[in-house]
């Protein structure tokens, strides 16, 4: 495994040095057996093995462990996207147990992800498209969910904010890879009320408030110090509590469809989509 900050070729260089060392050992031992008396050769062999042990210990301390060529981990040899496979072995989803409310089911799955140790289970990839149809995706954090929809907060002048001003269509995906589940949401995004944005902004850590207010998110800057200068001025002007800037606030995704996906054996995954009907939500199974 190559460590962070380690030169890209150091793993191969370490392996080359060890290979050269082993070749030298073999040549010395061959000469000892061929030209020395038997009892001298035996002593020489023992000394050579001891020297090799010492050298290996020093090499380990300098370079860390390096596997033999045939034992190099798969990721060290190069990840093969075509050959990598994960076998899912999950219990089949029971359609009757899903219920008729996708928001209740989502809350249950979110808790399952959190309790299973999924890092930042409220992280979701949000995709937007501008008026020209250019699609862009990024990860944001879910900050509210319920019958009204799924809420996140951002800079209204960011790429996502500009796109949503032109085109309200949006999709979000919660990818809980370690538990073989994902939730895909499609709908429209509406700005939440100023009062709701104010309340959430006030609940944030002060340093997060300052950074959000100071950063011209998604705009080109010469250096991060440009933002830090503005942050410093805000901290001097409002040292304890910061007022939410007008360019920052929340969106609520109002879903048309919510799909619940769970991996299963042989790629026969479970997929159930809830879509809005005239009289409530309709649940239907999708082909894997």
Structure description:
With 288 residues, this protein is α+β, with helices and mostly antiparallel strands. The chain is 39% helix and 25% strand. The protein is built from eight helices and nine strands. Strands 1, 2, 3, 4, 5, 6, 7, 8 and 9 form a nine-stranded antiparallel sheet that branches. A hairpin with a 7-residue loop joins strand 7 (248-262) and strand 8. Helix 1 (10-35) runs antiparallel to helix 2 and helix 7 (206-214) packs across helix 8. The chain is flat. The protein starts with 9 loop residues before the first helix and ends with a strand. Mean pLDDT is 83; it is low at 1-20 and 60-72.
Please name the defining characteristics of this protein:
288 residues; alpha+beta; 25% strand
Largest sheet: 9 strands, antiparallel
Q: What is the rounded distance between the termini?
A: 36 Å
Q: Roughly what percent helix?
A: 25-40%
Helical stretch tally: 8
Number of strands: 9
């Amino acid at each position: 495994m190559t460590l962070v900050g380690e030169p890209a070729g150091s793993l191969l260089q370490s392996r080359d040095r060890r290979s050269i060392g082993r070749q030298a050992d073999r040549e010395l031992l061959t000469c000892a057996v061929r030209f020395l008396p038997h009892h001298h050769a035996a002593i020489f062999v023992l000394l050579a093995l001891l020297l090799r042990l010492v050298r290996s210990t020093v090499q380990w301390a300098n370079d860390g462990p390096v596997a033999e060529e045939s034992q190099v981990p798969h990721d060290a040899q190069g990840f093969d996207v075509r050959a990598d496979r994960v076998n899912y072995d999950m219990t089949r989803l029971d359609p009757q147990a899903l219920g008729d409310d996708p928001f209740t089911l989502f809350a249950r799955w979110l808790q399952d992800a959190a309790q299973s140790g999924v890092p930042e289970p409220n992280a979701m990839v949000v995709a937007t498209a501008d008026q020209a149809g250019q699609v862009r995706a990024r990860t944001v954090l879910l900050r509210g969910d319920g019958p009204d929809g799924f809420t996140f907060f951002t800079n209204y002048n960011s790429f996502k904010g500009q796109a949503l001003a032109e085109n309200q269509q949006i999709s979000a995906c919660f990818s809980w890879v370690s538990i073989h589940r994902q939730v895909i949401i499609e709908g429209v995004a509406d700005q939440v009320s100023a009062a709701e944005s104010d309340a959430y902004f006030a609940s944030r850590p002060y340093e997060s408030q300052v950074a959000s207010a100071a950063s011209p998110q998604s705009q080109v800057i010469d250096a991060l110090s440009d933002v830090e200068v503005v942050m410093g001025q805000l901290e001097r002007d409002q040292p304890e509590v910061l007022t939410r800037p007008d360019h920052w606030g929340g969106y609520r995704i109002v879903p048309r469809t919510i799909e619940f996906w769970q991996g299963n054996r042989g790629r026969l995954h479970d997929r159930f989509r809830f879509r809005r009907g005239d009289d409530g939500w309709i649940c239907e199974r999708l082909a894997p």
